Amino acid sequence: MSARETALQRFRNPDPWHAPAAYWFWHRLPDMDTIRAQVRQMYDAGIRSFQVQARLSYPIEGYLDDDYLAACRVAVETAAGLGMIVGIYDDYNWQTGHAGGRAVTGYDELRERHLFWVRIPAGASDGTLSGIRSATENLGPAAMDWHYEGGVVAWADWRVEYALVTEGEQGTAIERPELVDRLEGATDGCRVRLVEPVPNGTETIVFVSARCSTSRLVNPVDPVAVDRFVEAGYQPFADALGDFFGRTVAYMFFDQPHAVYYDWAERVGDLRSAMPFHESLAVSIREHWGERTSQVLAALLDGDDPERLSLRAQFYEHFSGYAMETFLGRLRAWSHAHGLRQSGHEVLGHVGGWALDTAFANWDLRVNFGLDHFGVDAYRDLTAVDAQDALVQLSPVFGDSVARHHGRSGTMVEQYFLTPPEGGTPWSGHWGLSLQELRTTVINHHLQGMRQMIFHGFYQTHGHGDDHESLRNPRFDFPPGINFEPWFADHHLRFALESARLSEFLEPVSPQSDVAVLYPLRTVWTSGQLGEQASATGEWARALTESRVGFHLVDERDLEAADVEEGAVCFGDHRYRALVLPAVTTLRSAASLRQLRRLAEAGVRVLASGATPAVYQEGPQTAAEDWEGLAQAVEVFGAVPEETTLRGLVAPRGQTVPTLHVPAGSAVRWRGGPDGADGFRFACFAEAEGTAELLLPEGPWQLEEWVAADGTVRILGAAKGTVVLRLERNALRLLRVSRGMEPASGWADATDGSEVAAGHGTPEWSAPEELESGWLLDIPEDAYEEAATRRDIAVTCGWERQGLPTFAGTADYVRQIQLDAPVPLELTLPAVAGAVLVSLNGVRVGERAWSPYRITIPVDALRPGGNELRIQVAPSAANRYYAGTGLRAEAEPCGLLAPPLLRRALAEVSSSCALVDGDRPIEE
Prior knowledge:
six-stranded antiparallel sheet; 20 helices
């Protein structure tokens, strides 16, 4: 099979790595029939990969017992028979590192330990640490019961780790352990007593550590504890499923591995959370810094001068490297030893938005692998991130960026929904999800670098109506459960195949991205995740995306090894014409600024906004002066510049290689570039009607369209110059262009200014007839309420406003259509809340789950006289599951929201041309 034939085959029949995947939420031990039925349900809906997740409603004492593992084996066996792929989600509920508490049962010394500090001012001889608060409290009682035995936080085994005497925020720090008289520890805090009052002009800082005696989490920086977690949480899967490893079971997946974040009443300092701690970490710190340890620890909390900030950055680099190797390194080693790939994602402060501090702003994420996302990815074989809500956001492009840093491309994206609509209660989720909303979200993620969506989640059950406690009641555990949405059974497969084919189409593409945005890691280390660099990074990323300017985030380690060619900076095999510094204040060393000067002098555009470099992590602190010397070669902005400036960063490719141009104001988003097979691929999507221009250098070129909806490839013909693409709302168009000498038989010649469209015998239609009256609503016999009923129904508003405020199942709108003689018809549904199946006289003629809801009805489905038109609408499940809970301010729309329109064919126009003169567009 040739390379082209292989590519076409993969496009028609995508593999499980590109098709949507799902977390399969288990709420109780499933029986064998349920397991087999639900695996088959996933497969039939186009979900070709899954990970089993035991959620909070699953009895924690049953996690990883023999029955649980036997059930997992049945799931894997069923998946193997269907050619699916299974990943192993590596813990109970989420947050890798406890194995449902099994890792610390009988091993109290391995529970998470944290480093706190007590400040004792001049004149005082004691200090208190109290009011310790777990971040888990924000998740409610169910989460507290999960993280802590008995649902309460208790501390034990208090120890003095360091005692410092400091002189002012910028002054010296000296270790004086002999000043501590005693440490009085309690379950909720401690008191430190000194042998004498603190002298005037100084402050004593006593660093103390304690073990959380009720936590189910292991200490992530204790090598022995991590080994025990692997033994308790990973090895049981090998014992039960090992014969499937490396085949059906393909990878292990970690999820937000971290110790809990703790704050306390007296905490003051730059570090905003307690830090995971262990004696082995203490040894590594002492070995690394020796007598300077006191200065480093003081800098961790205080100071804003370059010397202190330099030490702070050094500490976080050391801590993050130690933490990653201790925890992630052990997970990866086990996975590789068992023939599995390693995947998973860390805590992402940018999830659900663009800024680096969009989420988890109350946690100091520097104590979670130092927020070094490029470093974390070195421990994965498959990059993964998570994304929140139906938003275009930073996560997918960041995931793709870190993958490319390590010689890969593309990322898994765990997609969940958390933020309710206006008037909704927090944590109530999104049972109102429509397939159009999900499709739009997923396509946008693909255009930002996603390879595969992992939907969060596919539910074993739909919970209960007795209460609406978040997390504990499965119904409100990050809903929706996608398989309990009424539209899932009949419509998800079409969406899933389209997503998989789009992913396969984009797989070989090296995207035309001209801008590299420097991830300000060292500035995060010195300033925290809430600094100016957090918003500046997000503002650049959002503005570039909205201006249709391709970009990647890059690491300063990339910069150090970069080459310069023809006015572009080259990171590996990717070239960028511009490099952006988003409020970067800290760089590794003077070598970084020398490299920036080299880039600017070679013609690379170097842009900066906000604060500028003032600190070097290493070497003499001359960053501010060095930047002044470079400033003339850098374009400095107070904020992100306007769209015209951003668009000016794009390489003028149209004269050398094919590229796509989106006019200002057009709604079209795109991704494209060379595909490694002497061709160029471009994927275009429009949430609203818009245009794009395919710019072709001197040819000849041949153009084809790959149709994600059905896997076909249409030869469009020869093309040159500028080809205008017109996309209606929600249109997805995939084009491949390659060099060719002569048009093949049946191809139409293209002219300059030609327009791409599809013609398939498009009829001339009559004026639309509004079908406003005469409708009945049929509710099926198996409905959960209003079963087997029929009623008159208006089509000017949803049925939730017509006496059915809690009904959210499928229902049929029924009406008669009178025809003198059958002719083709076109049915348009201007406004629908749900997905639709349309039938005429009992024959299905079409289905739509997103706009445009337009269906052509063939003449052979019609007859003279009366014809029964049925429009089955499958809405979201919101009004069923939120009814009576108070979690929604009002019922959500369901059904037809405007009268359908019917047009009749007047004449048939035969045409097979897809490239025509721009003055005669042929519409889809």
